[in-house]
Amino acid sequence: MNDTGTPSRTDWAIALLLCTLCLAVYWPVQSYEFVGLDDGPYVFTNTHVNRGVTREGLKWLPRGIVVSLWHPVTNFSHMLDCQFFGLDAGAHHRSNLMLHMLNVLLLFYLLNRMTGALLRSAFVAALFAVHPLNVDSVAWIAERKNLLSTLLWLSCIWSYLHYLKAPSLRRMALLALLFLLGLMSKAMLITLPVTLILLDIWPLERRAKDRPFVAALWDSVLEKAPLFIIAMAFGLETLRSQGGSGAMIPHDDFPFHWRLAYAANNYVFYLLKMVWPTKLSVIYPRPTAALPAGICVLDTLILLSITLGAVLCFRRKRYMLTGWLWYLITMAPVCGLFAAGMAVKADRFAYVPLIGIFIILVWGTSELSRRGKAARRALFCAGILIVGSLLVSARMQLSVWRNSLSLFQHAVSVTDNNASAHNNLGVALKDKGSVEEALKHYRQAFEIEPRHSMARNNAARVLDQEGREDEAVELLKESIAVTPWYPLAYFHLGEISFRHGLVAEGTALFEQGLTQDPRDVEARNNLGNLLANHGKYEEACARYREALSLNPQHLPSRINLANILAKSGEQRKAVAQYREVLKLNPDTVLALNPLAWLLAVSEDTQIRDPAEAVQLATRAVDLDKTDNPLYVSTLAAAYAARGDYETAASLTRTQLARLKTGAPANLQAELRRRLMLYSANQPYRR
Prior knowledge:
It is built from 34 helices and no strands. The protein has helices spanning 9-26, 39-44, 47-50, 55-60, 72-85, 89-115, 118-130, 135-139, 144-165, 169-183, 192-201, 213-223, 225-245, 256-275, 293-312, 318-331, 354-366, 373-398, 404-414, 419-431, 435-448, 453-465, 469-482, 487-499, 503-516, 521-533, 537-550, 555-567, 571-584, 589-601, 610-624, 629-642, 645-658, 665-679. Helix 1 (9-26) packs parallel to helix 18 (373-398), helix 9 (144-165) packs antiparallel against helix 10 (169-183) and helix 20 runs antiparallel to helix 21. The N and C termini lie far apart (78 Å).
């Protein structure tokens, strides 16, 4: 790279080689499936995302929470994939691969630009490209947030270098904007301001020779004050939202002194896996007991020794302190102190932190090359051999990501007492139709972790579907006894009570569940449906309205409310609700069709609007694409209401001709009755 920062031919050649390494590892991922671990809520079951870029989706982005996390930039990237590729899993995987390649290339470019060490920068980027610990981040579609936030992290470093050329408010604003976008991809970017200070120490070495180190360090901190303010705000909000959603592991389950011990152990764990990347798993067992004192002492001594060594070498080898502190600081948000969800440690957490260790290893090893040409050649060959070995290991690790079944079978096989892995394997087996195998793994999950309520509820759901209701009820009652705060057990028991006509008992169970999770919109909507099925229309409407008070844009609740209002004779209120649905999503067939029906057949002249009814019914038929008899009947009624009886009769004749043998007799009779009306130039009225 020349003095202007323009890449040379050698730079381009190395960049091409780095891309080739990425493709050599990850090319097969294009044939892999979505997996049953967050890919659903992030992409294929998220209606805001899987429809592509829509007005409704864009309105949802600023407030959308997925798996207890707020990252609108990541959600928008998934939306774009769905817009262009639909739910083609291979295309989504390709997007992840492209992001990883960009991260590799940008890491190489930045290191080379900051240090001028071409080969060393290339080797760091190569290790980052092919290390097996990074496979999760690339092969897991839901980990788009990790790749995207890293791209923006590295872009922030580029922007910082741009700022240092000619410091100005405008250039600092660009850096702050990239930082905000990165945080809106994944909150782990919160440590960026500190990593920029580390870069000031090495390799930028911004301290003037006549300036004391502490004073220069303080200047560097003050310079980045806007970034620290942004980081603090995002950090506090992330802790608040995760705590409020129940994503944080409770203190009773994971006391603070455990957290400290496991945090130290995790730091050592990633170092060991970096050196010897075997038995990697997408899920590791959650802690169920305190670490032995001997392991705690050993982990602490290892970390203190490395830290002391880095400090003692500071004057001669500043890269050691920068690399080591980069590792410690960037890992801090996910080291285990702030444990959330099922992950106290995970391979994907090491994606950015290990860059610091790679720098230490490559720069430290390069010092041995000063011993002569033979040493340089030997080290170069050793480096090539290490990168090649890691490539093969990463390719093998990638193969476990083919589908959910292979992923969780692998997790169970390489870990012990892994309750979450057994639970997820049970889900994968159930989806494949292996019910008894699924039940076996669910049971293993809650035998390992007696308070693993999700596994109990999953087992109960399967048993209930298989007609083994008594066993299901027993498991659900056990779940409530062991974890009375878990709402799904109450909801499932409530559904069973409704099935037996025990409306009051079922409602009470739902109420108990909602006490544990008062903001569960879906549960309120489901309770409304169950009440409506038992003719409790007024109570059902109250539940739908509760759901809408929590989330006014929850379409199922609004559609269900409109349907009940229409069925209860409150047509004007129903029309208003259907129109609200169409404001949120104009393509909602479940609102287009019933609204068109009311506008076509209502006796209320203030409601009836045949012209709009034809327009809405036509759109419903076009969007449905299945010739659904209900939708076509609505369109025929709308034409008749407008006075176009010939078209109405023609549509109805076509429907009768297309009815399959064995179609319900009442449907045939109703269509013939309407045909007689239309043939006699009479509209259908109701």
